Structure formats: C-alpha cells, structure tokens
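Hey, resending since the last one bounced:
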Amino acid sequence: MRVAQFLPHPPAKVWRALTEPELLAQWQMPGSEDFRLEVGHRYTLTAVPRPNANFSGTVDVRVIAFEPGRMLSVGWADANASRPADWTITWTLEQEGRGTRLFLVHEGFDPDDPTQMMARKIMDGGWRSHVMRSLGNVLDRM
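The structure tokens again:
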C-alpha cells in the first residue's frame, strides 16, 4: 500500500517526528518510545489484537535502513511466530515548497492470504486517517 501526505512543515521537523522516541510516543503505538535510529535495533509495539486479520496485537520491529533526513525503513513482524505477517514500512520525505511530501510504502502482504488482505485493508485505513492525523497534530504542537 502507498500513502502520500503533504505536511505543512519542513522536512527536518518531520524527520524529528519520525525518529525521536519522545515524539514517536505521541503518535505511534505504545512501545515506540524504545525506538533508536540504528540499523538492526529492535523494539516492540503493542496494539489492539485483531483476530479477523490474524494479528496478535504485538509487533516486533527492526530498523532496516535509513538516510538521515530522507528515508527510514523498518520491518514489522507479528510477535506470534505462528502468524505469517512480515512487512516492511518505508517512510520517504521530499521537500515540497515550504512543507514536506511524506510517502509511506507498506509492503509484504501475501495477496493469496485472506487474513493478510483483511489486515491490509484495516491498516490502509489506519495509515490514511488516524496515523497521518496524529502525526500532523504532533507536528503542529512542536
């Protein structure tokens, strides 16, 4: 899934909201306060379990790659090893006028797995509404 969102804030400010644990904790799932901008770093996020999407509610996250001020890529896997979710979320920032165009790519869904397609549908709505709105609110308060 792909989401593009214009944010009326400079890229450096958006980057801070994506990578500073005290800011992440204000708009991402609980556990994001344990984030470190370090390839290989692992931490755990918690959310509401979604049995209809075969989601346990606990996400093991690892930092895969980053380019300071421009791109952050993390891997997400359901902490319950019997669940097949293994996704990559990549944030990319591009300056647009005085603001930032933030791109999110969430990939790795198995199109042949009905529960993964349900998870994709749920998360697509969440990224576009709740997450982007929460991020925007944090940026407005910074």
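Residues 114-141 form the longest helix (28 residues).

Sorry for the duplicate.
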